[in-house]
Amino acid sequence: MGLMRRSLLVASQSQWLRERAPRFAFMRRTVTRFMPGEDAADALAAAARLAENRIATVLTHLGENIADRAEAESVAQHYLDLNERIRAANLPAEISVKLTQLGLDLDSEFCFANVARLVERTPAEKTLWIDMEQSPYVDLTLDLYRRARAQFRNVGVCVQAYLYRTVKDVENLVSIGASVRLVKGAYNEPAEIAFPKKTDVDESYFQLAQMLLGAGARRAGVRAAIATHDRALIQRLCAWAASQGIAKRELEFQMLYGIQRAEQVRLAREGHRMAVLISYGSYWFPWFMRRLAERPANMLFLARNFFSG
Ligand SMILES: Cc1cc2nc3c(=O)[nH]c(=O)nc-3n(C[C@H](O)[C@H](O)[C@H](O)COP(=O)(O)OP(=O)(O)OC[C@H]3O[C@@H](n4cnc5c(N)ncnc54)[C@H](O)[C@@H]3O)c2cc1C
């Protein structure tokens, strides 16, 4: 992993920076590249604009590692209200949550109850997605997911291709016909548990995607969301899917708001399912640092905003 990427990911964990950085106007200006605004209304308006291009959305209210029960409950309530607003606006939008924002650090039973409340109020044809956080949370997240999946069909979970363990996790998830969002992984993980080289992560991603899209997975009812902006990988997967007779509509891609916009429109126009994850909220610092770490060129963009300020 590059030094810049590692430094940004270390910085993303700094409370000192988290408290100070958002005060700078050039930071706030740069954030707008990845986020339509801090309010749910901004996210819903962006979702409506994307829907005009047949692009669905997944909405997430930024926040993680909540250490207070009342705060976790208010996040759950926020998502329940958001569900209503999505329904009222008739938007093709789903919701994605972080378990540490719903109280996982406090008590896993309490967190499960919050998740269950949200899935119960998610329309049957939509999925409530669960993000994957740093490696110490992977077992807890998958355990909670499996428990939720035993009770509800419409709940999905994210897995990270950079972890060596994910091949086993995907095998288990396929066997229960899960809904799975496959990503490369956004955190700073040690070489003992995660591929340090990008080429190995990319290869792992391709193999896991094949497992999630294969005939066995489709028979089991798996919904696979291929969440990447990597155009070479997308092309390779599209070619492989066509060779397997997988219809374009059965191949679902997900990307982040503001990244590879032209590719998002192109994939939707070609007939693939395309969804864009929109993040919003004021707690954006750690999330924003992870976005910077994903692409060193984003630092130039930040620098330009600093000097134009
Ligand atoms: C819908 C969605 C949900 C996600 N959920 C999670 C999650 O729950 N847990 C988790 O660990 N990670 C999550 N991620 C992040 C993911 O792990 C990666 O860090 C991120 O997607 C970058 O990897 P990539 O697959 O796009 O490939 P990369 O090889 O990193 O990028 C490929 C190309 O995409 C473009 N690109 C990628 N990132 C950026 C960026 N930030 N800014 C500008 N251009 C960029 C660049 O052109 C780059 O060359 C999610 C990603 C998506 C799309």
Secondary-structure map with pairings?
Layout: H1 3-11, H2 15-20, H3 25-31, H4 40-51, E1 56-61, H5 69-89, E2 93-97, H6 108-120, E3 128-130, H7 138-151, E4 155-160, H8 166-175, E5 179-183, H9 198-213, H10 215-220, E6 223-227, H11 231-243, E7 252-256, H12 261-269, E8 273-280, H13 285-294, H14 297-307
Parallel strand pairs: 1-2, 1-8, 2-3, 3-4, 4-5, 5-6, 6-7, 7-8
Residues 131-132, 158, 160, 181, 183-187, 227-230, 254-256, 259-260, 277, 291, 294-295, 298 line the site of flavin-adenine dinucleotide.
Q: What is the H/E string?
A: HHHHEHEHEHEHEHHEHEHEHH
Count of DSSP E strands?
8
The secondary-structure class comes to alpha/beta
Strand content: 5-15%
What's the story with the biggest beta sheet?
A: 8 strands, parallel, barrel
What compounds are bound to the protein? flavin-adenine dinucleotide
Give the CA-CA distance, first to last residue: 31 Å
| Low-pLDDT segments | none
Spatially, the strands of the biggest sheet line up as 1-2-3-4-5-6-7-8
Helix content: 40-55%
Tell me what you see in this structure:
The chain has 309 residues and is of the alpha/beta class. Helices cover 51% and strands 14% of the residues. It has helices at residues 3-11, 15-20, 25-31, 40-51, 69-89, 108-120, 138-151, 166-175, 198-213, 215-220, 231-243, 261-269, 285-294, 297-307; strands spanning 56-61, 93-97, 128-130, 155-160, 179-183, 223-227, 252-256, 273-280. The protein has an eight-stranded parallel barrel with strand order 1-2-3-4-5-6-7-8, surrounded by six helices. β7, α12 and β8 form a beta-alpha-beta unit. α5 (69-89) runs parallel beside α6 (108-120). It is globular. The model has no long low-confidence stretch (mean pLDDT 93). Flavin-adenine dinucleotide binds at residues 131-132, 158, 160, 181, 183-187, 227-230, 254-256, 259-260, 277, 291, 294-295, 298.
